[in-house]
Design a protein that fits this description.
Number of strands: 6
Number of helices: 7
CATH architecture: 3-Layer(aba) Sandwich
Low-confidence stretches: 3-26, 29-43
CATH class: Alpha Beta
Strand content: 5-15%
Order of helices and strands: HHEHEHEHEHEEH
Strand order of the largest sheet: 3-2-4-1-5-6
Structural class: alpha/beta
Distance between the termini: 11 Å
Number of domains: 1
CATH superfamily: Phosphoglycerate mutase-like
Radius of gyration: 17 Å
CATH topology: Rossmann fold
Largest sheet: 6 strands, mixed
Mean pLDDT: 86
């Protein structure tokens, strides 16, 4: 079976974070901050600013998730198409809740968290692994945040944006917020792709946790680490089943199956 994410580490004191970046009118980041001063809470996969009982329970569900198909069958099924793959954007150079920032401008990457050097490499690794494994890529749909559509571009060379994959303006989201995420994403996760292809959705952590609360009650799955993908069997009418979890480094392994 594909290896699972490692267990939750101990949490430390919450750290305050600030943003800094260089504006790039193309939307693709041209500079990166060093991968340093990472919040201790990220050892668990949950960003330090959003650690609470709901997110930590969702992270445990993520850590405990067991793939429902063996590697060889999973690889073969993906080559046949018919799945929706939800990819959380690759690693970023900062850890802060830009979705609640008064300076947030979705058309300006300098106001947002941006891909780190490692994140860019991971995004390319995802795309290369999928190509090598012979997995057909159909629609590639991204949120409007730079880190999401940059991940899509580096992995697949194309994307279309859909605001239903965006964040809501919350950090500690309420049950009502999570229900909104579910209402937005369940149509995307349940829509059957064009024959012989797989749909790739590139988004964020909280929306995925919200949409999975119905299938992994009560708190859903918090997808970690950044760059992780969940393979979904769409069944139409808002219904779907979680099939497998794949880390950025594990796509290449499917090429050998």
């Amino acid at each position: 079976m594909l290896k699972k994410a490692v267990c939750i580490a101990a949490l430390a004191l919450m750290a305050a974070c600030s943003s800094e970046s260089v504006s790039d009118p193309s939307g693709m980041e041209s500079t990166d901050s060093a991968m340093q001063d990472q919040p201790v809470a990220q050892a668990s996969g949950v960003e330090d600013y959003e650690v609470n009982e709901t997110t930590m329970t969702g992270e445990q569900r993520n850590a405990d998730f067991v793939n429902k198909l063996e590697d060889e069958q999973l690889a073969g099924n993906l080559r046949d198409g018919g799945y929706v793959i939800y990819v959380r954007h690759a690693k970023t150079d900062k850890d802060w809740g830009d979705q609640v920032s008064s300076d947030l401008d979705l058309s300006d990457c300098s106001t947002q968290r941006r891909l780190s050097v490692v994140g860019k490499a991971d995004a390319k690794l995802i795309g290369e692994g999928i190509k090598t494994a012979g997995i057909p890529v159909g629609d590639v749909i991204s949120s409007e945040y730079c880190r999401a559509y940059n991940t899509a571009e580096l992995a697949f060379g194309r994307h279309t944006k859909n605001p239903d994959l965006n964040f809501l303006p919350c950090v500690e989201c309420t049950p009502e917020d999570y229900q909104k995420y579910s209402d937005r994403l369940s149509p995307l996760l349940s829509q059957i792709p064009e024959d012989g292809t797989n749909t790739f959705l590139v988004g964020h952590d909280d929306p995925f946790q919200g949409v999975t609360m119905a299938v992994e009650p009560p708190n859903g799955i918090y997808p970690a680490p950044m760059g992780v993908a969940y393979v979904v069997q769409p069944m139409g009418d808002g219904q779907f089943e979680l099939i497998a979890k794949i880390l950025p480094t594990e796509w290449q392994q499917l090429a050998e199956r």
